[in-house]
Amino acid sequence: MSSRAIRIALSTLFALAGLWLGVGGLWLVTLGGSYSYLAQGLALIAVAALIMARNPLAFWVYAALLLLTIVWALVEVGLDWWQLAPRGDLVFLFGLILMLPWLARSVRTRPHGSFLRSGRAALAASLAVSVAIALLAVFTPSHDLAGTLPERSATDRDALGPAAGKDWTAYGGSQAGQHYSTLDQITAQNVGKLKVAWTFHTGDVRGKKDPTETTYEVTPLKIGDSVYFCTPHDLVFALNAETGEQKWRYDPKVAEPPYQSTQHLTCRGLSYSDGTAPDATATATAPANATASADCVKRLFLPTVDGRLIALSAETGKVCPGFGGPDGFVNLWQNMPNVKTGSYYSTSPPIIAKSLIIVGGAVNDNVSTAEPSGVIRAFDVNSGKLIWNWDSRKPTDTAPIAADQTYSANSPNSWSISSYDPALGRIFIPMGNQPPDQFGGNRDKNVEAYSSSVVALNAETGAVDWVFQSTHHDLWDMDVPAQPALLDLTIAGSTVPALVETTKQGELFVLDRRTGKPLLPVREVPAPQGAVAGDVTAPTQPVSTLSFNPTPLTEASMWGLSPFDQLACRIAFRSMRYEGRYTPPSLKGSIVYPGNFGTFNWGGVAIDPERQVVFAMPVYLAFTSTLKARTDATSRIVSKPDEAPFNENFGAPYAAKMGAFLSPIGLPCQAPPWGYVAGADLTTGKTYYRHVNGTVRDLSPIPLPFKMGVPGIGGPMITRGGVAFLSGTLDYFARAYDVTSGKKLWESRLPAGGQATPMTYWSEKSGRQFVVVVAGGHGSTGTEAGDSIIAYALPKS
Question: Is the whole model's pTM more than 0.90, yes or no?
Answer without folding.
Answer: yes
